[in-house]
Design brief:
Helices cover 67% and strands 0% of the residues. With 201 residues, the protein is an all-alpha fold.
């Protein structure tokens, strides 16, 4: 799943990164890897903090049916990813603060919007909630038998969310996912980046 995310960011990054004179060509892949790391780390952090329902809400309402890019820019998860990526651009890649902010602000919302839309597309086997959450929590493509992709329907208007609060007896699932994400984080912060670096070869 992380490799699919990296490839998605590579597709989306042609203007913001690859054809951008502010980013030296020899740094293109490293910058794209940093963007991938920012997305994965933020999602993993939210999950480790018990925020599975926040991720599900983002994926259920933040894509084409939720106001598009402008609504994504006001989402705190997306804001944190942009901030994280901006810091990586300035601190790790030596890009000026204004340019870094512009690159992150143009790349990340488009990436998240595309990720949401592709996750909601039943014909796109490369992206689904089970593999996304599983890759960040050590649960593989199926997280202990929970059908997270099926649960996504509860956040997109279908399903059994009778009182409309986005919760469909999710406490057990949230506890399981939270624990898995915390374990993955405690296995060392370099784990995600090591995997992402493998896609550059």
């Amino acid at each position: 799943m992380l490799e699919n995310l990296f490839n998605l960011i590579k597709e989306q990054g042609s203007d913001a990164v690859i054809n951008n004179p502010e980013v030296p060509n020899e740094q293109n892949n490293a910058v794209l890897a940093s963007a991938t790391q920012s997305v994965a780390e933020e999602f993993q952090g939210v999950l480790a903090g018990g925020g599975l329902s926040n991720i599900m809400s983002l994926f259920g309402g933040g894509g084409s049916n939720g106001g598009g890019i402008s609504s994504l820019l006001s989402n705190p998860i997306v804001g944190s990813i942009i901030s994280s990526f901006t810091n990586k651009l300035t601190n790790q890649h030596g890009i000026g603060a204004n340019q870094a902010s512009g690159i992150a602000g143009s790349l990340i919302p488009g990436v998240i919007s595309s990720l949401i839309n592709r996750t909601q597309d039943p014909n796109d086997s490369g992206f689904n909630m089970n593999s996304l959450i599983g890759s960040l929590t050590g649960g593989g493509s199926q997280h202990s038998g929970f059908d997270l992709q099926g649960l996504l329907g509860n956040f997109t208007g279908g399903g059994q969310d009778v009182n409309g609060d986005g919760q469909v007896d999710m406490s057990d699932i949230i506890a399981k996912v939270t624990s898995g994400a915390q374990q993955q984080q405690s296995n060392g912060g370099g784990g995600l980046m090591d995997m992402i670096q493998g896609f550059l070869k």
